[in-house]
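dumping these here so i dont lose them again. two proteins, back to back, each one seq then structure tokens. dont judge the mess
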Amino acid sequence: MKKIRILNLHKKYRLNEPLIKKVIRRILKFCGRRKKIELGFVFLGDKAIAAVNKRYKFEGSPTDVLSFDLDAAGEIFISLDRALRNSRIFGTKFEDEITLYVIHGILHLSGYDDETPRDKRRMSKKQDEILKYLWKKENLSKVLTPR
């Protein structure tokens, strides 16, 4: 059994937690992650993720996703502010950008990296595969709910 915890610390956006958990389980299945794991997802804003980034990665700027592999557990921090900003820059849907960050965090915990151009291309290709798979299975526009 995979235990999934969702914590939304962002005051402006409300998340559809049951749908996000369902999407996370689909991503894990797609990635072949079958062992028992515990995953925590923390959704927050730029200011809060910058503080986490500074404390653990020694970089004080906001970022989109931070992943921490804790062996049988993992923590993924996602900035909803970055997701909104980047959805506007790249012309994508806000909800798809959030889902992409969830995918990105899980891929980091699955051994993918994006430090080199080659690794970045490999990870990006896998993200696109998973996102296309999810679009066929779920209505991702319902990832957010009205507050």
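---- next one ----
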Amino acid sequence: MVIMAPFQGAEAGSIPVTRSEGMKYINVLAGKYSTMKIRIFEIRTLLESKLKKLGFTASESKIIADEYIQGELKGKSSHGIFTFIRVYEKIKRRQRGRYKIIINKAAYAYIEGNKDIGQIVADKAIRLAISKAKKRGVAMVGGGNIQAFLRPATWAEIAARENMVALCFNFGGGPLMAPTGAREAILSTNPIGIGIPYKPYPFVIDMATSNRAFYNVRLARKLNTTIPKDWGIDRWGKPTADPNKLVAVLPFGGYKGYALALALEILTGPLVKTRVGRRSDAMRGFLFIVIDPKVFTTRKEFDRDIRALIRDVKTAKKIKGVKNILIPGERAFQTEQERLKSGFFDLDERVINEIRVL
């Protein structure tokens, strides 16, 4: 089975997609878009400098920039450097508030976002949940009225690296997805991040409840490419390959994805006092649940049993053409290690130039 990485050779105007867990592909004709090598530390410095220009402190700028760097490191270009431009312009237009923890109990907390930056609130929330879970065994931190962060998996992985299990959900920010049977967007894509400690890399689920995260559609519009017809529908409810005619993405797995998206919209909407559905005002809600595995078992037994299960999965009889069965987080880890070793990103030159003039 051939697995293609983002921005590698594809026929002009097409976006071949291989069905592999957690991966999002926008493949563009090699040479049609000019790419450039840029050192990872250079792009990090550039992002942080732009954020400091907006008044963020050095530590805040690092927290925010980290998520864009992590997305690019892990091969998730639709949630990487490309995204910074759009979000930066939004941050610049909006007046930033400051989050406030208004409920703070032993095993749970609620954060009123006050339109604060998503990454800053999420970083505080996951570290607060980890701290509480280490003392109480399980903890939950929810909040609402925040600006966007990119991936709940970012925060789930932080917990997994602290030897905690994490379930991280967030409201996707507004109507983007059609419920099964509808021809308009009502629900958001409501992504899921699940982190489980495992060596040498955490088991991490990173997925939207739509066939593809909406950022992929925005990236296709930016690059003027077509999209697979199963991503979404036009105003008449017909599948479309034109990202500019798409009015709603579709849930993965038909009604099952729709049901999951609706449940998560409740958990990251009404439960945490965030407007969703047609009442959405583009502010986000989130729910982070962190569990210490030692509440039910020992760490040694937990690690042993996970290793045994992963071994069973990896050694399963394979269908023709498959060389390796991947587990969630494995490909992202491999890509991250390769890019860290090289020290460079290959990025669209236009994206870099746009960031430089922000």
